[in-house]
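pls ignore typos typing on phone
iron/sulfur cluster + seq
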Amino acid sequence: MKKRVGIPRALLYYKFEAMWKTFFEELGAEVIISPETTKTIKDLAVRYAPDEDCYSTKLYFGHAIYLKDKVDYFFIPRFGSDHEVNVGCPKFIGLAQVLDSLFPDFPEIIMPYYSQAKANHGKRRLLRIIFEIGFKFTYNPLKILKAGFRAFEAQRKYEEQLHISEQQLEKWINSQIFLNEKPNLEKRNKPLKLALVSHPYVLNDSLSNLDIRENLSQKGVDIITSQQMPRSTIEDQMEKLDFNMYFSYEREILGTIMYFLENNTIDGILQLAVFSCGPDSIVLELASRYSRRQPETPLLQLVIDELSSEVGFSTRIEAFIDMIDRRN
Ligand code: SF4
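k done
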């Protein structure tokens, strides 16, 4: 019988999904990923996660608890960074150990530690991790090596598809292509263009983001997400700061906001921040300062948590869209 590896569909899953899934499947394991966040998962999160955690981390707890009796292993890497200076969130590093100590009935957690910025990890460390994990599933070193190679290849392809080029961005701005679901144009002839900016685990989890993508699409809004933005555009914007924004996700978020504020080529920017997220609170403040300096493109900032209601959220978005329509 295949060994079952559980991966909670939350946080870094939304960055490394392709790599992790391919790796374990190539090793011969059955990969079980929790479903998209449901009301049950959210209830588990609220019940069991520490109160002081951010909403996204709480949801991670819900996903892990949902999976715990369905798998033989959990895969929860302690990921610090894949850049020599910039880092992810410290929560990504501590989460596996917190879960391990709070829930002794959890199956074994595979929790490799990797951080290029803080621990100077590189290819040798990666190779060690690949073999350490691989030997839990097979004694064939070639199979392990092949699984590692295929996993990186899958990740490369996934990212190549996800991040658009500067030319595609230009085409989207000029309404020559859609990058996401085609908006419903029953009530308007021309779609509004908005940038939807947040962490990938908010952008892609409809319960977490209160179904904002569908909501916008129904209102005739054509979106681009911060996750899709060309990497070169983000890095160009970061060069303009007089300090280094060293949280990697926040680079993506702030870079997208700065780009559209500066260029004034779309109708508005919608930023979703996570309640009690430290890095988000820095970016909220910075973005709002830049927006005051370049007010032509309106910016709406909304903070989400477990108490946010779809109705209240929808009303704010409607008011924002009405305001844009009146301006236009
Ligand atoms: S970056 Fe913010 S939202 Fe993401 S895990 Fe860290 S504190 Fe939570």
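The longest strand covers residues 268-274. The chain has a mean pLDDT of 96. more later
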